[in-house]
């Protein structure tokens, strides 16, 4: 059997082609009797009817495709859940996501924008591998654009979503304060990125509200080796911290190593909290790492939903959104030994 058409559905349901069009395009409300709608939908299902998106695009002036420019997101499994959230949301609304990973290359990005525009995408999402400030890609002024995991350097009225770095850091410190810790260390990266500055500021502010000062240990990078170095620096103090909050889960992995070298058990002698909830790291450590989750999937969904809002003409009330970063509790936090 060849391609099933609306005429085939109409013949099976014993209705007119115009009735089939109204029902399958969601324009039947108040115009087609419910029993006829049911007959049309049943006939379409029985015949495995698939709409002609090219023909629909000619009628609606939309291709039902959305371009996604990825700055190393597609090649970074940790951040890839943003793509999963955006793709699933688009798929559920009968739209196809066309992905191009630019790998941080400005020339590739410029060419990718041109290619997606030539393919008449209805809108575009720009996704960054990590929270940073960006220059917006040069897209046509009339093409809807949403930025994912980044903030534009210049406010151009574009919707964007980033993690709530400050709220996540506050949640981590509060978790340790609630457990009874008053001597808390913070291991941080020295990179000039929003996450570093915002999390450190939140750590200082949250502890200040409790009348405490943080013990900060910074390193040039945020990997496990640097985390070990940063943690060892604090654990060697005459009055060492009883808890550590780490800029990310990889630094927390290094803190675990440093704790073993100092003969400390987690969480009996030292509590540790990470940030990211990185798969195979946070849940792979022993004991499991209590951490703050980066809401990659949720941010991807948010970006896709804002694109759909723009395409339907809806007003976006929350165009600059900071997605909450929840605590994921495992076994690395306990009350300090002297408080038990």
From TrEMBL:
Residues 4-60 form the HTH lacI-type domain. One of its GO terms (molecular function) is DNA binding. Pfam families: LacI, Peripla_BP_3. SMART domains: HTH_LACI (SM00354). PROSITE patterns: HTH_LACI_1, HTH_LACI_2. Keywords: DNA-binding, Repressor, Transcription, Transcription regulation. It comes from the Bacteria. This is LacI family DNA-binding transcriptional regulator. The lineage of its organism: Bacteria, Bacillati, Actinomycetota, Actinomycetes, Pseudonocardiales.
